[in-house]
Each structure stands twice: as structure tokens, then as C-alpha cells.
Automatic annotation (TrEMBL):
Gene3D superfamilies: Periplasmic binding protein-like II. It comes from the Bacteria. It comes from Syntrophobacter fumaroxidans (strain DSM 10017 / MPOB). This is Extracellular solute-binding protein, family 3. Keywords: Signal.
Length: 258
């Protein structure tokens, strides 16, 4: 009798092990609601999308204003947390942030097992050279040249796809370092997002953009994998920000190219 009971217990355990695991409830949006604040991770090293104003010490840029507008539509406050670009996705998975709003493309986030919002901007990747450069006029002019890119960026991914074209790809923690090396002729060109290139040229006209864009990147808001409720709420807010006209105002202020 005792053996029979033990056998029944064993078969019960084995049966339970074969049942599909019950997914944990998605509380990603309710957590933000209860806190009353959306915590946004970003890297304030990429004007005009995000940077710190040297005079006011305040964060500013397209992503900053968009984040504020999205949070307002969600009915919560927003807190921006500045961090190293290379550690943002790890911080998101750890729970340091609710979302990333930091000019991150689908290609940059795709292999990281995360949720992505609807596309909120399409960013061309372009070639930047010195103003006195006469040989490099387009993609073909990069043959046998040394190009600079930011580590972990979509521009780096693009360069790697075309690595056979270049003599060397130099990788930098941040784009300003690449532009400094370009100015001092330590590299021949920089591959970078068009909006950043234009902002840099406005600050320092010793650079220029040449040729057609090499590619276009879809920019998204990134949330943790499984944060479906929060992602859906983000998309609702993005749509509302567009409909009310706020998106266009922010776009005109930060990303309009004359």
C-alpha cells in the first residue's frame, strides 16, 4: 500500500513537471503607474538627440522633449538617468530603467531580447569628411580608407557589414573622439547619423557630409522583454503626441535641417 502511494505521488510529480509554466503577470505598466514616474535611461552624449546644456546643466534634445511628451500623455512624471551607452541595455535588463529613449535603432536592439516601440524617427547614416577633402565624395571613395565609428552604434554595424571596403575601422567610445581624429587627419572619414553630423557641422564648419546616405536606421523606444503592457502604453502615447502636433514641434526644434 505504501509503495502504491509513493508511485501515485511520483506520477503526480512527473505529470506536473510536464505542464507548461504559468507566465508571470505583466506588471510593467502598473509599476510605472504606482510609482507615478517613468524612468528613462539614455546617454547624454549625442546632440541634438540628447546632451547636457553646459550653462544650465539640464538635459536637452529631441529625445528629452519626446520623453517628456510621452510621459505627460501617460499621466506620469519622467526621470532621465544618464549612463554609458555600452551599458544601457544591461541596465534595462537589470531593472535600472523602465525604458531607453536614446536614439537607439532596431538593429542596435534587435539581438538583445527586448521589446521595441513603434518607430519614432528614421535616421540616415552618412559619410562625414574634412571640408578640404576632395577624394572621398561617396561610398566608393572610402575604398582603402580609415573610417571612424562609435562603439555599439548602428553606424558601427553598418561599417562592419562593409569592412572589406575599408583599410581599417577605428572604434571610439563616443563620436566627438572620432571627429577630433578626423580633424587631425588620423582617420579619413566618420560614419554617423545625419542629425548628429549636421549638429557637429553647425558647431564646427571644418567638416562636411558627402554622397548619399549609406543606410537608414529605424529609431525606437526600448523596454525590457515581456513588458508588453508598458510597450503598448508607450505606443498609445507616441500616437497621441503625433496627433496633437507636439511631435512635429519637437522635430522642427531639434532635427529640422535647413
Amino acid at each position: 500500500m505504501g509503495i502504491g502511494k509513493r508511485m501515485v505521488g511520483l506520477w503526480t510529480c512527473l505529470f506536473l513537471l510536464t505542464l507548461p509554466a504559468v507566465a508571470a503577470a505583466d506588471d510593467s505598466w502598473s509599476k510605472v503607474q504606482q510609482r507615478g514616474e517613468l524612468i528613462v535611461g539614455f546617454c547624454a552624449q549625442y546632440p541634438p538627440f540628447e546632451s547636457k546644456n553646459e550653462k544650465t546643466a539640464e538635459f536637452e534634445g529631441f529625445d528629452v522633449d519626446l520623453g517628456k511628451a510621452v510621459a505627460r500623455q501617460m499621466g506620469v512624471k519622467v526621470k532621465f538617468v544618464d549612463a554609458e551607452w555600452q551599458g544601457l541595455l544591461a541596465g534595462l535588463k537589470k531593472g535600472d530603467y523602465d525604458v531607453l529613449i536614446t536614439c537607439m535603432s532596431k538593429s542596435e536592439a534587435r539581438n538583445e531580447n527586448v521589446n521595441m516601440s513603434d518607430v519614432y524617427y528614421t535616421l540616415p547614416d552618412v559619410i562625414v569628411v574634412r571640408q578640404d577633402e576632395s577624394v572621398i565624395r561617396d561610398r566608393d571613395g572610402l575604398k582603402g580608407k580609415i573610417v571612424g565609428v562609435q562603439l555599439g552604434s548602428g553606424s558601427e554595424q553598418l561599417a562592419d557589414k562593409n569592412r572589406e571596403l575599408f583599410k581599417e575601422i577605428k572604434r571610439y567610445n563616443y563620436n566627438p573622439e572620432a571627429f577630433t581624429d578626423l580633424k587631425h587627419k588620423r582617420i579619413d572619414a566618420v560614419i554617423v547619423g545625419y542629425a548628429y553630423a549636421v549638429n557637429q557641422i553647425k558647431t564646427d564648419p571644418s567638416y562636411k557630409v558627402v554622397g548619399k546616405p549609406l543606410a537608414e536606421a529605424d529609431i525606437v523606444i526600448v523596454a525590457a522583454r515581456g513588458a508588453d503592457a508598458l510597450t503598448a502604453r508607450i505606443n498609445q502615447s507616441l500616437s497621441a503626441v503625433r496627433t496633437e502636433g507636439t511631435y512635429q514641434k519637437i522635430l522642427d526644434q531639434w532635427l529640422k535641417v535647413d
